[in-house]
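U., I forgot to send this yesterday:
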Amino acid sequence: MKRLFLPSLAALSAGLSAMPAFAADADQPGSTVKEVVVTSTRLPEPVDLIPGARVIDAQQIELTGAVTAEDALKTVPGLSVFQAGAFGGVTSVRMRGASADKTLVLVDGVPVDDPSQPAGNFDFGGFDLADVKRIEILSGPQGSLWGSTAIGGVIAFTTKEPDGTSAFIEGGSYRTARGSLSVGHSEDRWALGLSASAFSTQGISSADAADGNAEKDGFHSQTVSANGRFDPTEGVVLDAKVRWSKSESGIDGFPFPAFVLTDTTDVMHRESWQGLARATIDGPWGFQHQLSVSAYRLDRSNTGPSGDFAFTADRQVYRWQAERSRPGDIWGVAVGVERENTKAELSDGSTQDAGVTSAFSVGRFNPIKPLTVTGSLRWDDADHYDAVSTGRLAAVVELGSGFSLNGSWGQGFKTPTISELACDFCSPAGPALNLKPEHAEGWDLGLRWRSADRRFAASVTGYRLAVRDQINFTFDPLTFAFRYNNIDRTLSRGAEVEASAELGHGFSVSGNYSYTDAIDASTGLQLLRVPRDQGSASLLWSDTRAHAAVTLRAEGPQADAGNFGTETRKGFVAADFAGGWRLSEKVEATLRVVNLGDAHWQEALGYGEPRRSAYVGLRLRY
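Result:
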């Protein structure tokens, strides 16, 4: 049944599209789409003018019942999301086939990739969306915007500026409970807000839940964020944001001596905080200057039969940016410089530092009305490596009758992490020798159509991404050595088809289909955890009193990591429901049903997912 369904979903997606593809801010669910502006491009631009850009707003997060970042991202075309255990298990994202360490993650502009993790990738597991206003996704190499790591793309989270009071409580299957509260005031001259959320569940045994293992992997987390903004005088804005998160999750590990995934009592602890302080000042010639300092700290540890480990990471970024972008102008420009300092702890308890000094520029030009051209250049001088220059060029041409042609070409790079440079966990011990930075080049080309009333939209995009000298951790059975080395080249090619429609009477439908062919070009073998075929479809309905959404997601088979080798994870089809009923102007009852079909499936090989489960809640707004 699953194998038959996937091609059917692919055909359906030719007329449907995932919600994030044409996201918008709207006054009411199902209302006419408004223009969406993307800010993670350094120079704010409408989403229609940025190839590979998508936005998920707070309204969509609420309507689809997304609880964590994993819930919101798993239906975005071109993204492969895999979670090593439900409820807080380590969760990674591959963008357009690039490995998980090549996705740069920002929270309020603060880089939050883990400097202490060997490959440096961000763990999306348990990232609570209660305080998130919007998620921006930029697919394709973005090295010229954000420097190292942004080879596959960028995922940027922006937290809310609360205005009023809102609260939410929910409970359900697996002894799950969660709640959130936000209070704040926002006006032209000042704003002050506070948000807090918590999540707790008994969970399931993540090591193949279908086998009914008895040991439950619970998850407990708390998140607190605060924001402030003050305009002391005309042309000057001071603002600051801080976010703290702490979690504890039961995980299943690979204990000695077999090192095979087993139902264990391992527990992973994570505590992080990030903060941003910024001054925005209007300057001469229409330029707006931003001076900011941001900091990120992460403490994580693992205790249990698989071993006891503890890591700490720190990062600070100092940035100046000047931007000029006025509505109606034929050009806009942003320039800036920044310094990043990073410190990470290794497995032996020692710490090492790394840093990079950078300069960047972004420009937009509309030489004639139908054509918009955007370009960016960046120079990065890492402390331990030679300086790198990267560029990107993109263009959108309006063809008339709602059609537009868009394309981009870009470069990316990634310097070895502190862990890779020191060859942490290597055997025999000792620093990595001759390890080179990774370099990437990619392009995409797409055709988009939108109806004049903006109720219907569709697009198709093809892309290619090549990575040279990709860093890999390998085992040599002849010498019994574990070392980092550079793979000659990896290559990803694919296509993304999306569409959406507002059908009237409160109904809207969307869907997408992605084809991804990601290989190690030196061997021809498929890269792990990148399904060739995946897609999703959503049906939404809403009126003034109620709303409901059914989301269907499917993935074909994929190569995955098995016991000391490569195995195949079977394809799956899963469906979820989310709905709400407004009891009064300020009170709404909600219902979520996860895994409607009660399917047995795995997102990552060996890690089972929850069976059919239900959660009821109450939302208050003042």
